[in-house]
Amino acid sequence: MADDPRVFLVDDHALFRSGLRMVLVMGIPGLRIDEAASLEEAMRHEGPAPEVVLLDIRLGGLSGLEGVGMLRRKWPRARVVMLSSEATPEVVRQATERGAAAFMSKAGTAEQILALVVPLLRGDAPTPNPPVPPAAPGGERQRLTPRQCEVLDLMCQGLSNKAIGRRLALSENTVRGHVQATLAFLQVSSRSQAAFAARRLGLVA
């Protein structure tokens, strides 16, 4: 893997981009991430070429399927991974024919996401939908899930559990569970401490 591996994320949901960014930054030392909310914005990007592009299959404007070929022409060495909540065999076939290297579920855990992206950054063959590894003996802390990263981002903006639930279409009890898991992960006991720790670690702006 390069000393400064680079991923380009194309998704029109800012909260999902923020959550996925946290997962990747926490799991891959030295990773640099560029992002765009649309294919048009990605095509205008003039920075260094990424090793991996994470592309939402359902974008406003030009679709992700249309974008696979465009992005591969722009960055010939990049591996394009399609992001999807669900994908039919026909969609998978079309994307593969256009040059997509792999599919990644938006509902995947942090471990699954990293197990797919890290080998691609090394230039290895993709391992789609890898299994979640069992918990390590002694209760080793797990990484935050993308959903917990979204909750952390909103929590750092000062939103209450009820407001976070409305924003993410989750029940208040579900949000409370994500908040508790996030506090435990960061080894803090309050929301203000969590916000400080998240900013110190570079997890949120």
From TrEMBL:
Biological processes, Gene Ontology terms: phosphorelay signal transduction system; regulation of DNA-templated transcription
One Pfam family named in its UniProt record: Response_reg
Keywords tagged on the record: DNA-binding, Phosphoprotein
Domain HTH luxR-type: from-to ranges: 137-202
Domain of life where this protein originates: Bacteria
Start and end residues of each Response regulatory domain: 6-121
Keyword Transit peptide on entry: no
Keyword DNA-binding: yes
GO molecular function: DNA binding
4-aspartylphosphate found at: D56
Record-linked SMART domains: HTH_LUXR, REC
Protein name as annotated: Response regulator transcription factor
